[in-house]
């Protein structure tokens, strides 16, 4: 009977922890909900933590003390990260994705809930020790990736706009150089209510070429006295080598284009290169 | 020993099913990964399904046959849906949210990963019997809500833009009347590659007043020979009563404003009104 009850409790605890990554839950909450002793809940969580650890599906962490509790962190093993990034790079290298003007068609990938969730789990894993208060992105295409990253971190999301909107209230507005080729000056704005001085931000976007937009977001954060803990993009171009924004980390690189097959050569960043041994392995 | 192994398997199966809603998994995949007989996996899934059912945390469904498998559907009970919608309506009614120009400040709510995920689970529950191929939204503010709805349904996301972009390839572009007050004509565009004739779309946005944008998206779908299975918004204004788009379903209604407290009166749609009995109940 206890066996059956444990199974039920595990299903419920898993559902709550796994769908609310990085949120701290008090063991008493679970105890009340499931009508079980705290000691039983503790044992359940220990079993869950061991299983997650064993199969590399994230970490269930217990924080001791009065303000403590338990939380799920969607950690990703190095091997799993390589598999995720490689499969997306392969998809982006399919023939037919090269558009007139030498653009890479990536909107389907950048807005896919499952792909962005997986890529976000790879990025989020880097910031588990230094969790930002919010993820900042610039409208429009990077929003899904940024939202999934925010969710994986248990952080908020702030969207910078090309212009301030009446329905966002008073705004902080800056000018920035939008690219390295042309010296065009653009503006970006964020709602003043959306951020507070002293917070920490992670900057996330789907694509970087010159790095102007990323640098604009970095300057915006300085303007608001917010610390930037990192700058992460899904895809960056190899050229120009020197970007306007320093310390940009990219999951993938756009190496070059092939007009004959209308395709782009997108490769994983070297951190996510798979060794031959794991290449054939299939995971759901 | 079998008891421990079952616990481990349950943790892994839960993690995979719960983080990939609506995706069909073959029992053999789980069997191979966990090195267990198909009959054991079947029993695991039965236990998981019973527990999810019992605690109202979504449904684990088994589809028989060769093309079958198991999937998780984040169903939400009527009571839970009422709790979610009521708590968000309450938050949006807080003093200080009324902006100059009689706008409601809702960007923090509309971009919160956890709030949008919960609201999306309420919307998605309506379409489990008629799952769309993709969710369509118009940039920018509704994207998080639309993405979470797409994820809950296991569907894709398509983002309509105010203008076509070179990096989205050739586009379908339409003109539409942007509101009922003013007869302003705006344009919206979607990438031709993003959709196919014969697909089904669910239109989702964060806010509706005149309904012009929703009607624009509806017409865009007709233009592309795509069936619209529903039109869902997070908040709609009571006025104008007659919207440009018919059959709009809203989670919440903006009843009116109070300039003295700078607040808006936002209430759940009548489908999500809580009865007094469940009002005091706390759920994580």
Would you tell me the overall average pLDDT of chain A? 90
CATH class of the largest domain in chain A: Alpha Beta
- CATH hierarchy: architecture of the largest domain in chain A: 3-Layer(aba) Sandwich
Low-confidence stretches of chain A: 280-284
- The quaternary organization reads as homodimer
- What is the number of independent domains of chain A? 2
Largest interface, with Cβ-Cβ < 8 Å? A-B, 69 and 69 residues
| Radius of gyration of chain A over all CA atoms, rounded | 21 Å
Describe the structure.
- 2 copies of one chain form a homodimer.
- With 284 residues, chain A is of the alpha/beta class.
- Chain A folds into 2 domains: 2-73, Arc Repressor Mutant, subunit A, CATH 1.10.10.10; 78-279, Rossmann fold, CATH 3.40.50.2020.
- The first copy, chain A, has 9 helices and 12 strands.
- In chain A, a hairpin with a 4-residue loop joins strand 11 and strand 12 (263-268).
- The interface between A and B is large, with 69 and 69 residues.
